[in-house]
Structures are given as C-alpha cells and as structure tokens.
Amino acid sequence: MIQPYGTNVVTAEGKRWQFHYRITAPPFNEDAWSRHCLRDLHLDIHSLTLNIISCAGFGLKQEWVNDTIGSHESIPDGHSMSFLQAITTVVKHIVPILLFPTNLMLYTPLRKGAKAYLEFERYMRAVIDTEKQKVDANADYENLDSRGNLLTAMLKVSAFEARNAPGKTGSTKKTTFSDDEILGNAFMFFLAGYDTTANSMIYGCICLALYEDLQDSIVEEIDRVYEESEKAGRTHLSYEEDYSKLTYTLCFMVSPPPFTSHTHIPF
Questions:
Q1: Reduced to 3 states, what is the DSSP secondary structure of residue 209?
Q2: Cα–Cα distance between 156 and 89 in angstroms, integer?
C-alpha cells in the first residue's frame, strides 16, 4: 500500500532493505538545515522544510519568496501547479492516494489529490532523468560521495555496483535501483520528512511565543555559542563546530512543553 511509485526504504525487506538504507540514509543529517523573515508562519515553515529536503535529497533549490503556495510565478512550463503545491496537496490527500487508483480519483471530488500525485511524479521523473545524464557523463564512479544528495547517491551507487558486480550467470542478486524504486524512495522521504518536520517546527515556534522563559534561555545559549565562535576566529556557526553545543535548544525541539487547557494563547 505504501509504495505508490515503487519499492522504497520503508517497504523493502531483508538484504534489499539494507541496500536501500545504505544508500538513502547518509544525505539526511542535521547539517542540511544550516542553509536560510517570516511573513506567514505556516507557509514559510512549509516552504523552508521543502527547500531543505529538496536540497538534501535531490539537489533542488526551491523558491523562497513567493507570497502564496502555488503562485503562478513558481509554476514551470508544462505543469499545472508548483512543486510546493504538488507535494503539499499529496500529503493532504495521502490516504485516498494510497487506497484508490489515480485514474478513478480523477473523476471524483478527490481529483485535486490525483492531479497533485501525477504532478509530483512528473517533477521527480524530470529530475531523475536530468541527474542520470550527469551521472552517465561522469565515468569515474569510484569517487562515490553518498553524502551528496539522496538522488545522486542512489544513481552513483547503482551505477558503481552494477559495473563492479561479479558476472555470475543466473544470479538473482539485484545491485541497482530501477527508476520506480528511485521514485518510490523519493516519495517516501518527502512523505516521512516534509509534513512531520514542518509541523514540529510550527509547534516549536508557537511554544516559544507562549513561553518567554524558553525564548530567553534559547537566546542566551545561542549568544554564548556565537561568542565562543568569535573567540575562535569564526564569523559563522558551523554544524561540525557548534551544533553539539546547542544542548538546551536541541532538548527543546525534542521535548517541547505541552499545551494544556489553561494555556493562554496571546494571538
């Protein structure tokens, strides 16, 4: 049910799962968040999250300054909605997309979800084709960098292992990803990481607005880390040097305070 595009890291099993996990896991680490003025909290957080996942996963840089989701300025030729609108709509309609055939949904009130599903597939297949051409043009597959982006990692490792796999007649061991498997993993990482991460960040922002003592503690910690960075001769924070020092901030994001029936929301 949860492989609408193809086998992925969630649905694969045994050695096949190990193969998917080994290639898809490295690009997603905390350093990917070190790359962007709020106008609309919900829109901006979702845009930021999509930008980060798109960059870490597929080397895609999404527009950041559009005023509305699906702005015509952000819709490329040949598409009926923007990439942000497509993935957002897919997430909202994920249950019927997994349960019903797309062709059937197109003739029901769920047609918007079906159209977004097809748009997302068109976007991703175009990206896969483009990246494939780049990988095919680079014959030096030994210089694998699986900590680049997810898509490049899958294509490079597939090409490398296909090239170096022992040539055994009748062997059933599969060492490469099909296009459907690449698309399946792309969809699953977007599904698992996009909406959930955005909602966690929105909840964290609301908590900071409600609890000024938390704001003060986090600002104090960030100021301290910046001061230590300047003393070390660095003008910017880095993941390698400073991320582990933000212990209070990390604890807050992992375990933010709960809302209660007595919580006063000042807006």
A1: helix
A2: 31
Give CA–CA dist 123/75, Å, rounded: 11
Structure tokens given for 129: 């084709």
Distance CA 162, CA 19 (A): 13
User: Considering the entire predicted model, what is its pTM?
Assistant: 0.61
With tokens 């979702």, the residue in question is 46
Distance CA 133, CA 137 (A): 6
Give tens-digit pLDDT for 102-159: 999 999 999 999 999 999 899 888 888 888 887 777 645 433 444 567 777 777 777 7
How far, in Å, are 75, 150, 249 from residue 32 at the CA level? 25, 12, 17
Burial class (CB in 10 A: 0-12, 13-18, 19+), 235: exposed
Listed in sequence order, the DSSP H helices in the chain are 14-24, 41-58, 83-92, 94-99, 102-105, 111-136, 150-164, 179-210, 212-231, 239-242, 247-254
pLDDT tens string 214-251 = 999 999 999 999 999 999 998 888 888 898 999 999 88
